[in-house]
Write a structure and sequence with these properties.
The chain is of the alpha/beta class. It contains 14 helices and twelve strands. It has two domains: 134 residues, NAD(P)-binding Rossmann-like Domain (Rossmann fold), CATH 3.40.50; 183 residues, Rossmann fold, CATH 3.40.50.720. The two termini are 43 Å apart. Keywords: NAD, Oxidoreductase.
Length: 336
């Protein structure tokens, strides 16, 4: 009887429980044998014994780095299937050099980020956050200054999208339901592809000058660090909204504090630099800034989608079908 392939999990216990509920584990067992242990370290005899039998390594949040030592201990290993977003922190380049297949569920994790982004674009353009604060702190008998909706709303506005990443493309797709003009800055998108996306390709400066709303979806690279610096934030029109669900390093925090404190623009930030911001940081006190604690990605009930993606990916791998989330090594530097 031929040997069944073996899957080993390397991720935090909470991630295993939330991403892989029992019915998904049962589905996975239809195609592989599953080692019941979840590893957050590859040290010790138990991990060594599991790696020796592993054909597929299923990683996720809290996984240890997969490097040359791990590969030496796992002679049967064919693939790393990452049940989370980026693989940059857990997959050493040697994994690609040895010819292993690497897959990521980043596409599944991008869905809630895009949903969150669209929600805050709608709410932010309506100035919901600052108006809600005014409503909550209103003094009895004072004029109801939270009621004015002059100039608010997303309808008819110009939205600038920085980065046609997985999330960026999902946001572009969702924006098609709105009567907005969409500008895109992404140096890797051709004019023909921009046309197919229904956007106008522009430079960053032009995007800042023309956009009522700017939403950031680029990777954190040396060349994208502080892409929105003081000069470019100063190009934004009065009343503009900046949304960042990508990486905090894309925006110069000190410059953002200055321009938001002046009241010229507002911001919604799910990521910051540094992250988390220290207690008492001036951004927390600004009425036109909303900061959320990096929660746009998959959480709670949304995590199941990632588990479903990973289980389906293992099935595709073993059937020899193309992988939906295959990570190509040459594209790795340009991912989040």
């Amino acid at each position: 009887m031929p040997r069944r392939p073996v899957a080993v999990f390397a991720l935090a216990p909470w991630a295993f429980a939330d991403v892989f509920p029992p019915d998904l584990i049962a589905r996975l067992r239809q195609v592989v044998d599953v080692d019941p242990t979840t590893f957050t370290s590859f040290e010790g005899p138990v991990a060594a014994a599991a790696l020796a039998e592993a054909d597929v390594l299923i990683t996720g949040w809290g996984c240890p780095r997969v490097d040359a030592d791990v590969l030496a201990a796992a002679p049967r290993l064919r693939a790393v299937v990452h049940a989370a977003g980026t693989v940059k922190t857990c997959v050493d380049p040697v994994v690609f050099e040895r010819g292993l297949v690497v897959s990521s569920a980043a596409e599944a994790n991008a869905v809630p980020v895009a949903d969150y982004t669209l929600a805050v674009l709608v709410l932010g353009a309506k100035r919901v956050f600052s108006r809600a604060r005014k409503y909550a702190t209103a003094v009895e008998g004072a004029p109801p200054d939270w009621l004015s909706g002059a100039g608010t709303g997303l309808h008819g506005r110009t939205v600038g999208v920085i980065g046609a990443s997985r999330v960026g493309r999902l946001v572009l797709r969702r924006l098609r339901s709105f009567d907005v003009e969409v500008l895109l800055h992404d140096p890797h998108v051709t004019a023909a592809e921009a046309a197919s996306l229904g956007v106008e390709p522009v430079g960053v400066d032009d995007l800042c000058r023309r956009s009522d709303v700017v939403t950031v979806h680029a990777p954190a690279l040396p060349e994208t660090r502080h892409m929105l610096d003081g000069r470019r934030l100063g190009l934004l029109p009065e009343g503009a909204l900046v949304v960042n669900t990508a990486r905090g390093s894309l925006i110069d925090t000190e410059a953002l504090v200055r321009v938001c404190a002046s009241g010229r623009i507002s911001a919604v930030l799910d990521v910051t630099e540094p992250e988390p911001l220290p207690a008492g940081h001036p951004l927390f006190a600004l009425p036109n800034v909303l900061i959320t604690p990096h929660l746009a990605g998959a959480q709670g009930r949304e995590l199941r989608r990632i588990g479903e993606f990973a289980v389906a990916e293992v099935d595709r791998l073993l059937k020899g079908a193309p992988l939906a989330g295959r990570v190509e090594p040459e594209r790795l530097p340009y991912t989040a």
